[in-house]
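Re: beginner question about structure tokens

> Can someone show what the tokenized structure looks like for a real chain? I only ever see the sequence side.

Sure, here's an example I had lying around. Input first:
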Amino acid sequence: MRMMLKAVVDTEAGNEAFRNGSMIKAIEQMVQELHPEATYFTASDDGQRSCLVVFDMADSSQIPVISEPLFHGARARVTLTPCMDLGDLQAGLSRVPADVTSRGT
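And the corresponding structure tokens:
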């Protein structure tokens, strides 16, 4: 299942992780393990370091493997959300029964 991971890094823990090199290693390891479709780095709404990673999750047992290094190394707040690309949305909408789409709101 295509998932979007959002990790918001604690500022102090992130500063230390960048100073000691562990942040770069963690990012490289995550990219190597997940083979993401897309990876973006940004500042979150409140100005903290953040990353967004879109990847295929084969099994929910991957959640601890993905999340724990971010929790421990950067004290990150991690969110995993199922997501779709346009093709997925079109395929899903094509399977919605007509009587559902013809009803008003």
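Each token stands for a local structural state, so reading them left to right follows the chain. The chain is about 50% helix and 25% strand.
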